[in-house]
Amino acid sequence: MNAEQQSPADARRERGTYYATTPIFYVNAAPHIGHAYTTILVDVVTRFHRLKGDDTFFLTGTDEHVEKVAKAAARAGVTPQTYTDQVAAQFRSTWDAMGIAYDEFIRTTEGRHQQVVREVLQKVYDNGDIFYGEYSGLYCVGAERFVTEKELVDGTCPDSDEPPEYRTEANYFFRMEKYRPWLREHIERNPDFIRPERYRNEVLAMLREPIGDLSISRPRARVPWGIPLPWDEEHVTYVWFDALINYWSALLSRDLEQRYWPAVNHFIAKDIVKPHGVFWPTMLKAAGIPVYKHLNVHGYWLQDERKMSKSLGNVVGPLELQAKYGRDAFRYFLLRDMSFGLDAGFNEPAIAERINADLANALGNLLNRTLGMLGKYRDGVVPAFGPLEHADLALKDAFMALPDALTDHVDQLRFERAVEDVMTAVRAANKYIAEQQPWTLAKDPTQATRLDTVLRTCLEALRCASVLLEPVMPEKCRALRVQLGLPDAAASLGDARRWDAIPVGTQASAGEPLFPRIDLAALHEELAAGDASAAPLEHKDEVEYDAFAALELRVALVTHAEPHPKADKLLVLTVQLGPESRTIVAGIRAHYAPDELINKRVVIVANLKPARLRGVTSQGMLLAAEDADGHLALVSVEREMPAGSEVR
Ligand code: ME8
Fold first, then answer.
1. What is the pTM of this model?
2. Nearest to 294 by CA among 393, 187, 453, 442
3. pLDDT in tens, 128-154
4. Is the peptide bond before 196 cis (omega within 30 degrees of 0)?
5. 298 CA from centroid of ligand 1 (Å)
6. How far away, in angstroms, is 146 Cα from ligand 1 center?
7. Residues with C-beta less than 6 Å from any ligand 1 atom
């Protein structure tokens, strides 16, 4: 069949090639939830592609030639190699304990990687794209790069939150500026090269002005820990020039580059957009290697409104959380609660609430009720379908639409939507049970065939859900199918396109509850016990009624919202107060995406003196509740009230 005759669905079902990477993580400290998120995400995406039948390859690893490693090793009194061996092993064993199915783990201290780095460097050098020169500027050790004055936020590096130091060095430079016009054009011509769009725009903005040449070496006398340049052993390779090449060296060292390059999807968080969006493609171009296909950028997991990071010390251990909530349930939470590209707030009650709502209530309930009734009415034996009625067909259609919908969502990085679509169908199945009332059918012997159909419909719904959720919850989904009486085997996406896959007569039997409820009250108590926020409230001084009455509080309808052009934490909202429209600047960007706010009715202080916030005048203030962890929720009124209504 040629491509023109294929339907889009057929084309989608064709076996493709999919190569995905996580960043290689610095080995200056143990893995935390931020690293776990990207790694789990890539694990889920590659498992989804494997489910589809694609030829996939999943690469992760560690970035070891960094100055801070040399310093940490010196502090620990060991050699850098001993130190990195220990931490790299810790990353690897964490991923193994989390069931991450990576195909390759690369370390930048391995000979196979170093050899490729030297070859790439030599090639770029021979092409005349590397020269020797002197450079002075602000260097951030945390981010391992020179930063410009313009990039600094309150004197600190935007990537690491650390103050940079002034350095002058004679180094080798890569003629990066030369490739700027090419890169700009490439990004303009390939709208999905960097995704989501906000990061594409960020990189395009960087490319509107000169990007300069990139210093790619360090004097070996100062930094002995690194890969020596092939033509000048007195210099070692700069970390990014070394690290980025891992994505290529891992394939080359196994003769896999023909098979997987350049069908590569890099996954990173927004802290390392510049090295991946600017340094890496220009390096590839200069080395004559085809440029990668997609750079996929996610936001940060925030705790107390701050990025979780090793240097900030506010990290939660992924293994701890996995032990407490279960491996699959924890993965489910991470996938469902971050909207790709945006930041997400992290806290334990949110994990528990998500597990209870989706896994215990929706999916767990469907499983328990179905197997309970099957046991009670049919001794656990899977019946045949009778004639299908409208309600049966509607549920079947909802499930049969999912494989293509999920394929699109995953292609377009809408992971939370993919998961939510399955849950919507699962909730519809629960509603179907409530409407069909199998317990009533069971009382009437003339309805035996109808009862068979209803039970069978629920069994197929569960089976399809287990196939579709398998990339996110591999163990639980297989265990679910075992309870349905099916073999303990991996599924394929085609299994979710069938509605008749459980052989009639199969013996099903409920086992251990797969998705136990979490006792929220106990969790809150436990967290409060270890949390200073459980201290008594500190009240402000009492005020006269008049002081309160002087405030004009009103209901306002949000009609437009966008990020503040100059401040990371602020959103600029347009709100409607009766006939009047106002601009309000609010520090809620870490808590709400602009789109989420449109059409919300919020409460504002309407007679606050206007204030200029980073160049935009705010004509009022939003009210929001804040918990001890710094999470915000906007105040609104309990019924829909006209915009402009006064709040007394
Ligand atoms: O940058 N939320 O390594 P790194 C979400 N070695 N993701 C987070 C996160 C958070 N709060 N914190 C970290 C490096 N991450 C370089 C990369 S690649 C050639 C070299 C994740 O150990 C996220 O994937 O600082 C981010 O991009 C990465 O960890 C940074 O890891």
1. 0.79
2. 187
3. 999 999 888 898 888 878 888 888 988
4. yes
5. 10
6. 18
7. 23-26, 34-35, 37-38, 63, 243-244, 246, 268-269, 271-272, 300-301, 307-309
